[in-house]
Design goal:
Elements (H helix, E strand, L loop, with lengths): L3 H8 L10 E4 H15 L22 E4 L9 H4 L2 E4 L1 H11 L9 H21 L11 E8 L5 E8 L14 E6 L2 H5 L2 H6 L5 H20 L5 E8 L3 E8 L4 E4 L12 H6 L1 H22 L1 H10 L1 H19 L10 E2 L4 H13 L9 E4 L3 E5 L11 E2 L5 E4 L3 E5 L5 E6 L2 H13 L11 E7 L5 E6 L3 E2 L5 H16 L2 E2 L8 E3 L5 E3 L6 E2 L16
Length: 531
């Protein structure tokens, strides 16, 4: 998986020192954190473990609601943002740098040596410079909060000036991270929990999360719901949200992308795992603080609007999950119509053949707004449709891409109007190639909330990480056809090629495409993906 933060880790361009003030980008600062965290656990003995045992939960497990986490990868804009490195941040970095090594894989040791100082560094960086009247200490980290009447919270991110939330506040003022020891990873318990298998251990985990959520909600009774995170570094990080009103826990998908192979010791030693985990942890904590603290939101909305938009989309999905009356998100498209039988028929049709989308006036994407479809020449039905949750989202400097498995479509919202105009013009010119080397264009229009233009195309498969000689040879007829139509792609690289389950390759993303004078322009494959 490509992650912008990994580029910073490899280049290690940071020039931070402990003795003098300095400026650095957020990417450079986060890149310096990774070696300290990996080193702290580098001597772990995979044979040293603690028994999971019983969770000791006295509460019935909450109703579980699954939702797909929206993309929380850090944006290039955010990582390249240059900030002043304060003395407080230097102190946090110094603590991480001096983290002692351990061979104990127990939950408490991992929490103490890795997670608690990492969370303290995150909230320090996110809230640095805010005028809060608390001597610069707006949030704090509490490690292993225990109650005299039973129950404990592994890591609590607590706001110092807790106040009664407004009616429109989403989650109050605290976030909790529950840790699991390496035995949980070795036995695949968290993986089964993420796959929602009905097994004993996942039920125990859900019961423990319920107990912790109730304990946290009792600490601040005015909170409508609480933020939770179920984690085992660096393999798994599940965002969870608990609602007291419905006694429900919404469980998101694993934020540490990809399947972590090998045993616990191999997992710890893999640098990429730690980079992905640090990035996911940072993004989740950032999303929580942006959501729970208006001053934090104002600060970053002005400096990193794309990152704040991702955070808000993530929050909206969790909120929609908890507000669901059924507790289960249907894999079918929900259609509102006057006739229930008609709704069923149209729902099935829309899932199998996407062309009926042209018959609807609008399309609602949970957490991403309402899309007004622009097909003025078509007869419209008197109702719109709502898609189920997506399987992935990706944000670039020019567009937000939302990928759906049911139905198999891709929705692309454009921040750059010229990019939209170029891509739509290319699809119109290349209509003979649609479905035969490039995606099929299904619909276009604007998002109702902000007027952003969008295109809906067929989902032709997953992006490639590299292009073999055979792949390029197979795509050459497609490239030749594009050129014969008088167009050049202008951004040919592996990440703009997708492969479906049958092996068919397609070229995507014509945002930089257009007509080109052969004497002044080339359209050659780039060796590597470059922004």
């Amino acid at each position: 998986m490509h992650t912008p933060l990994l580029d910073y880790v490899r280049l290690d361009r940071s020039k931070l020192t402990d003795s003098s003030p300095d400026r650095a980008t957020i990417g450079q600062i986060l890149a310096r954190v990774r070696p300290f965290i990996g080193r702290a656990l580098s001597d772990l003995d995979p044979e040293v473990n603690e028994s999971r045992g019983s969770t000791g939960s006295t509460h019935p497990p909450a109703r579980r609601v699954d939702f797909t986490s929206s993309e929380l990868m850090l944006t290039d804009e955010f990582l390249a943002l240059e900030i002043d490195v304060s003395e407080d941040l230097r102190l946090c970095l110094s603590r991480l740098r001096n983290t002692p090594r351990t061979s104990s894989a127990t939950e408490k040791e991992i929490t103490k040596l890795v997670i608690a100082p990492l969370m303290e560094f995150f909230i320090g960086l996110i809230t640095d410079g805010l005028d809060d009247g608390l001597g610069g200490r707006r949030w704090s980290v509490i490690e292993h909060l225990e109650r005299s009447n039973g129950g404990d919270l592994d890591v609590v991110l607590k706001r110092e000036d807790v106040r009664a939330p407004r009616e429109d506040d989403f989650c109050g003022h605290q976030m909790v991270i529950e840790m699991k020891p390496c035995g949980t990873y070795a036995d695949g318990v968290l993986r089964r929990f993420g796959e929602n298998e009905r097994a004993t251990e996942p039920s125990q985990i859900l019961g423990q999360l319920t107990s912790q959520a109730i304990l946290q909600s009792n600490l601040t009774p005015e909170k409508p719901c609480v933020w939770l995170g179920l984690s085992q570094p660096p393999a798994y990080l599940y965002p969870c949200f608990y609602s007291k009103a419905t006694h429900s826990i919404a469980v998101g998908s694993n934020l540490v992308k990809g399947f972590v192979e090998g045993d616990w010791h191999e997992c710890i030693q893999n640098e990429k795992n730690w980079v992905h985990y640090i990035e996911a942890c940072w993004a989740m904590v950032f999303s929580a603080l942006v959501d729970l603290d208006e001053k934090v939101s104002e600060k970053w909305r002005a400096r990193a609007p794309e990152q704040v938009a991702l955070a808000k989309a993530f929050r909206m999905r969790a909120g929609d999950a908890l507000r669901s009356n059924t507790g289960v998100f249907s894999s079918l498209t929900s259609i509102w119509a006057t006739s229930p039988s008609l709704a069923q028929v149209l729902s099935a049709a829309a899932m199998v053949v996407i062309k009926p989308l042209k018959l609807f006036p609008n399309l609602t994407l949970p957490g991403a707004g309402t899309l007004d479809l622009d097909w003025s020449f078509m007869i419209r039905l008197p109702f719109g449709i709502t898609l189920s949750y997506s399987e992935g989202e990706f944000m670039s400097k020019t567009a937000l891409v939302i990928i759906y498995a049911q139905p198999r479509v891709v929705v692309k919202l454009y921040y750059d109007k010229q990019c939209y105009d170029r891509e739509f013009a290319c699809y119109r010119r290349l209509w003979r190639l649609q479905g035969h080397g490039i995606p099929i264009l299904h619909a276009k229009g604007i998002r109702r909330e902000d007027g952003l233009p969008f295109l809906i195309t067929s989902n032709e498969g997953a992006n490639l990480n590299d292009l073999s000689h055979n792949d390029r040879a197979a795509l050459q007829p497609v490239i030749d056809s594009i050129h014969n139509s008088g167009l050049h792609h202008h951004d040919l690289h592996c990440r703009n090629v997708v492969r479906d389950k049958t092996g068919k390759l397609s070229v995507i993303d014509f945002g930089f495409g257009g007509e080109c004078n052969k004497e002044l322009c080339t359209d050659e494959w780039k060796e590597e993906y470059q922004d």
